[in-house]
């Protein structure tokens, strides 16, 4: 909206300036100076009128060359970058927990569904690491040696491990 207002004001100011110059210029019958002056003033006015077209052509040329700036705000970019990082962190955590559960089931011969793992995390997304692992045993897994499983997880991950029976 400000661009339109600026454009209209520049047209008005140019027309006013041209009128003042035309009034103050000497005009005599058959004077070649007034004809040339009117030609120059008309050229100036046409340049002011087509100035947005030049700007549009420059933007079109940049767009054709691959400079596609759509004016996305920086905070919007940061928001989506944060959302993406959070989604990646959650997916990494889920994958880690799934692989830990699968490894424990294979190592201690536990049937699928008889062992669930819960991991508490510490650190930021770049330095994310497990702080505490809880093994939740159910079904036939309650008869397995929970102490050996806790020791295995502690040596594997270097964090505290506790077990619970469901």
Give a written overview of the molecule.
With 166 residues, this protein is of the alpha+beta class. 61% of the residues lie in helices and 14% in strands. It contains 4 helices and 3 strands. The protein has helices at 2-24, 32-64, 74-107, 146-157, and strands at residues 115-122, 129-137, 160-165. It has a 3-stranded mixed beta sheet, covered by helices on one side. The protein is rod-shaped, with a radius of gyration of 38 Å. The two termini are 66 Å apart.
Mean pLDDT: 85
Could you tell me the number of beta strands? 3
Q: Which secondary-structure class do the elements indicate? A: alpha+beta
Q: SSE string, helix = H, strand = E?
A: HHHEEHE
Per the principal axes of the C-alpha atoms, what is the gross shape? Answer: rod-shaped
Helix content range: 55-70%
Distance N to C terminus: 66 Å
Contiguous runs where pLDDT drops below 50 for at least 5 residues: none
What is the helix tally? 4
Strand order, biggest sheet? Answer: 1-2-3
> The biggest beta sheet, please?
3 strands, mixed
| Percentage of residues in DSSP E strands | 5-15%
Radius of gyration: 38 Å
């Amino acid at each position: 909206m400000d661009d339109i207002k600026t454009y209209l004001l520049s047209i008005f100011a140019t027309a006013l300036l041209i009128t003042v110059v035309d009034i103050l210029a000497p005009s005599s019958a058959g004077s070649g100076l007034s004809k040339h002056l009117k030609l120059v003033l008309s050229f100036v006015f046409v340049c002011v009128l087509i100035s947005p077209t030049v700007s549009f052509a420059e933007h079109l040329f940049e767009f054709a060359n691959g400079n596609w700036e759509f004016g996305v705000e920086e905070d919007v970019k940061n928001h989506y970058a944060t959302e993406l990082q959070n989604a990646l962190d959650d997916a990494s955590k889920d994958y880690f927990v799934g692989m830990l559960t699968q490894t424990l089931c294979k190592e201690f011969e536990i049937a699928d569904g008889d062992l669930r793992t819960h991991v508490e995390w510490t650190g930021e997304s770049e330095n994310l690491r497990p702080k505490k692992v809880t093994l939740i045993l159910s079904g036939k897994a309650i008869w397995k040696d929970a102490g050996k499983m806790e020791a295995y997880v502690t040596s594997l991950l270097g964090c505290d491990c506790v077990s619970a029976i469901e």
